[in-house]
Amino acid sequence: MLTVEGLETSYGQSQVLFGVDLEVRRGEVVTLLGRNGMGKTTTIRSIMGMTAPHGGSVTFEGRQLRGLTSFRIAKLGLGLVPEGRCIFPSLTVWENLTATAGTGPSGAPRWTTDAILELFPWIRERRSQMGGQLSGGEQQMLAIARALMTNPELLILDEATEGLAPIIRSEIWKVLSELKRGGQSILIVDKNLKVLARLADRHYVLERGRVRWSGDSGALGSEYETIRRFVGL
Q1: Which of 13, 131, 134, 189 has its CA 20 to 30 A from that of 83?
Q2: Which run of H or E residues covers position 217?
Q3: Would the pTM of this model clear 0.70, i.e. be above it?
Q4: Is the pLDDT of residue 233 over 70?
Q5: Residue 132 carries which DSSP code?
Q6: Is the pLDDT of residue 118 over 90?
């Protein structure tokens, strides 16, 4: 589905990505791992057209994404749960959920409001509450639900569980496991190696803007201590 080749991105004179390669196949869960400041978020921003790369290519379902605006990339079927959640604080939970709802590129939506309420039953009780009144964990779950309501072919989560209480993290991992069972393709940035080794199919580790290691979950298990040092846990 998604192929990134030789991706190079800079902020002004400071280059952040140096030839990043990765791919996500249909139905896979793939992780992007590494310490803070190693280029994970910049990779996501470059894929989504939020930061323009100056080298390499990003293709989705065979279509080149470089040069497209973010909203056009989203319409092609990429749904982003951004770092920091970016919930609209002055909109209700329901308004946050439905403001960007769409049928997706297939035109046959899997994620309707009924399906979202089944996955996140707490939304029904909080639907009239303002987004800014939610806890951090509730905001993160709402951000995931909002991204799903665009009916993406590929769901991207930047820092899926960072800063959240353990019980909320557990709920989010359960949701992502259910999405995987349903065939949803997912690209995740997170640091919880033990959970990701069980959930994901393949992994990429970034260090200083370069892919230093890649492999499947079996390889991650056999090289766990090496990868743990890259991730900084």
Answers
A1: 13
A2: helix 217-222
A3: yes
A4: no
A5: G
A6: yes
